[in-house]
Design brief:
single chain; alpha+beta; five-stranded mixed β-sheet; two-stranded antiparallel sheet; 52% helix; NTP_transf_5; Renal dipeptidase
């Protein structure tokens, strides 16, 4: 297999290659810092959300080649992020207590617990919200609790015939007084697709005692599966997600358990994609028991595809993506799927969407008619869209 895909490192901006060198502690020549656009360097550090760990590495290595004004900007941002993470720690304890008192089991997916797990310090990873996973059966109960505590639900999910349960994977809450956002997951990833049940994940959970009360989070192999699935779905458009993989691969992961997990959920090639990108960009040393990831079929191709997002500094969270980025990302998402996943996705398109309800409003007791009507409603929308354009 091709363990060294053509990732076209030479086509990356110098500022980005220097960023990779600093984050991976590679020793470079003074020459590489000549003619640097330091404003662009900072822009990349903030875009990729790696400025806290970048600041720490520059400071610990006593890196004198970085201009003082650049270091000062990173230091200020580092301090602000530390304060933000301390706020999230407080809210973690609060949400954890609410769920414990209501006997709702929850797993923290990201936030401060992930910073501690991967970097050993809450200040070294950014996070703008808390992500928790609970059983779907407890969603309604937790919704009532959060509303009573001042959270406001963002009702952005449009659904018909209950498709939200498997097409979506989380709902967002915002607390205006605290200025904090909470994402409540009932799945790890959007559907359709198979993934470990909450019961399975709970049985393999780990406990963290860095707060005054214990909190629970994913086991190592489940965490790897979650992070590579999330990162690949976003095209690894932020290198912070790859830095997370680099950090996780420094820990002891059971190769047999991980292989079985990724194989069961058709994710071997995206595990390989993440491993290849991490080795190429951060010089990650893959443990012997995990080197099979580097030889996964199609992993090299997927790694090459991910460079589109680095070359173009893609922000998938922007309100309006350029058409070429939107089309590329749609194709990339499809290429991440296995054949069974593609088949399941094709079948799922036959299930009614909320757009069918908007096209032809029917009373709720007649919603079952959207199944036979869906092809005609889809064709009508396409015809109208073409006519309007």
């Amino acid at each position: 297999m091709n363990n060294n895909p053509n990732l076209e490192m030479e086509k990356l901006p110098k500022e980005l290659t220097v960023l990779f060198s600093l984050l991976s502690s590679r020793t470079g020549q003074d020459q590489e810092l000549l003619n640097m656009d330091w404003d662009f360097f900072l822009e990349l550090a903030f875009h990729h959300r790696v400025y806290p760990v970048l600041y720490k590495m520059i400071k610990s290595q006593n890196e004198r080649r970085i201009p003082p004004n650049v270091f000062a900007v990173l230091e200020q941002a580092y301090r602000s992020n530390t304060f933000q993470m301390m706020q999230l720690c407080q809210e973690m304890e609060f949400v954890n207590r609410l769920c414990t008192e209501s006997t709702i089991p929850l797993l923290f997916l990201k936030g401060p617990v992930l910073a501690i797990e991967l970097y050993g310090d809450i200040s070294l990873r950014t996070s703008c919200d808390l992500d928790i996973l609970i059983p779907i059966a407890d969603l309604e109960r937790l919704n009532g609790i959060l509303i009573r505590e001042g959270y406001q639900k963002d009702d952005y999910i449009l659904s018909v015939l209950g498709d939200w349960k498997w097409r979506h994977h989380h709902v967002t809450y915002y607390h205006p007084a605290k200025g904090l956002k909470l994402e409540v997951h009932w799945r790890l990833h959007p559907g359709p697709g198979k993934e470990p049940s909450f019961t399975e994940l709970w049985s393999r959970k780990r406990k963290s005692d860095f707060l005054r009360t214990p909190v629970y989070y994913l086991g190592k192999e489940d965490l790897f599966f979650f992070l590579v699935s999330h990162g690949s779905r976003h095209g690894w458009s932020r290198i912070r997600w790859l830095l997370d993989i680099h950090q996780l691969l420094q820990q002891k992961i059971d190769g047999g358990i991980l292989h079985s997990l990724l194989k069961k959920f058709h994710s071997l090639k995206i595990g390989g994609q993440a491993a290849i990108l991490s080795t190429q960009l951060f010089d990650t040393k893959i443990p012997k028991e995990l080197t099979w990831m580097l030889d996964e079929p199609q992993a090299s191709i997927l790694a090459e595809q991910a460079f589109f997002y680095l070359h173009n500094q893609v922000n998938l969270h922007s309100n309006l993506l350029p058409p070429e980025v939107f089309d590329y990302h749609k194709r990339h998402l499809f290429s991440l799927m296995s054949f069974p996943q593609k088949l399941l996705y094709a079948i799922s398109t036959l299930y009614p969407y909320h757009t069918d309800l908007a096209t032809l409003p029917l009373p709720k007791y007649l919603h079952f008619l959207y199944f036979p009507l869906r092809p005609f409603l889809w064709a009508w929308r396409k015809t109208r869209k073409h006519a309007l354009s």
